[in-house]
Fold this protein.
Amino acid sequence: MARVALVTGGSRGIGAAISKALKDAGCTVAASYAGNDEAAAKFTDETGIRTYKWNVADYEASKAGIASVEADLGPIDIVVANAGITKDAPFHKMTPEQWNAVIDTNLTGVFNTVHPIWPGLRERKFGRVVVISSINGQKGQFGQVNYAATKAGDLGIVKSLAQEGARFGITANAVCPGYIATEMVMAVPEKVRESIIAGIPAGRLGEPEEIARCVAFLVSDDAGFINGSTISANGAQFFV
Ligand code: NDP
């Protein structure tokens, strides 16, 4: 699959596994990140995948970053909007800053990432958009009103993009990971993490590669009729 792929937040955690899986599938991959230069440099050393720094919450920065990726690698065919953050607090203690930071990165960041790429996908009559949502966007989560709102919003984004893009050969899908062993989850206090694992029928956290394989399938030519869908990968942690 000789395509150009952009993975936001692609230098660490789930995004790094996605970048590697797409490279293994034959794509030329650009991995963007926010500010952790050390992790990005290490990632490039280990994988040979180029990294680019910009803040997905900033539309002009995203546009410029995407333009520099395309100048280096050619037009982007595949975009994986993976960059995300948490700023947890129970609702009565959540500050407008916590709310806005998460909305700006996780939700507006998806707009900022896909919007500059979209006209080229339409023109070339091929595109793959994957947004990394979350089980907590499907079920809500104590302390994550901001995060759950963004991740539920992602599902609305892909369902709408799917309808707009289908006749141009563009698919847009979401992956909803359950709890995956990355720095984001390992930062949770051990006691809380143990109780999370106890609630997962598989009895373990997921691995980033298990999410990456879902993405690699969704962006493949074989997945052309899967559009507007959500893949839940959560170890049978049902929520209805
Ligand atoms: P990590 O914290 O391990 O990595 C986050 C990545 O996103 C980093 O590369 C980071 O860059 C980048 N990033 C964060 N903010 C911005 C920004 N404003 N602009 C550009 N890049 C940014 O996260 P995970 O791998 O755990 O999560 C990846 C995605 O998966 C997120 O959307 C998350 O919500 C979702 N998810 C994760 C789950 C989990 O259990 N881990 C479960 C369900 C969903 P830098 O390295 O510079 O900080």
